[in-house]
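Onboarding guide, step 5: your first structure request.
Type a short instruction followed by the sequence, for example:

Predict the 3D structure of this protein.
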Amino acid sequence: MTQKTKAPKRAVPPKATRGKARSASSADPTASASTEGLDGAMRALTLALDKKALEPVLLDVRELCSFCNYQLVLSGRSDRQVDAIADGISAGLKQDGLRPIGSEGARTGQWALLDYGDFVIHVFLHSAREHYDLEGLWSDAPRIEIEVPPDARVPVDDSYESALT
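The system replies with C-alpha cells like these:
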C-alpha cells in the first residue's frame, strides 16, 4: 500500500512566482507588457528614501529578463546604513503584506538583495555599487522616471566621499 504525500505549501504568493509570462499573450499583440511589481518597487523606493538612501535608479527589465520586471538599485553611506535601508524596506513591505522570496548579503553592510519575485532591490555601499556596476550591466534597460529629493543626489562635481562629510 502506497501512501500519498501532500504537496508542500507555497511559500510564495502566486503574484510573485517566477518563470511566468512577462508580456501580453500573442492573441492580443496590442496589449502592453505586465507592470506587476511596479507598485511594490515604488513603495520600496519610498521606504529607502525614508532611510536616506542615495542615487536610486529604477530599471524596467521586463523585456530583458525572465526572473523579474523591475530592479531598484540604490546606495547607502555606510555599512550600517546599507543594513538599515534593507531592514526598513523589508519591514515596510512586510506591513503591506509583501514578503521577500529570497534575500542575500544581509548583515554584510556591503550589499543587500531583496527578491520579491516581480521586483528585486539592490542596496549597496557606494564603492561596492561602483564595483558591480549593475546599471552598466543592465544598460539596455529603460530607467523609470522617479522623483528623487535633492538630498538623495550626489552633486556631479562632488566625489561620493565628500558627500559623506
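Each response can be followed by summary notes, for example: The first helix runs from residue 38 to 50.
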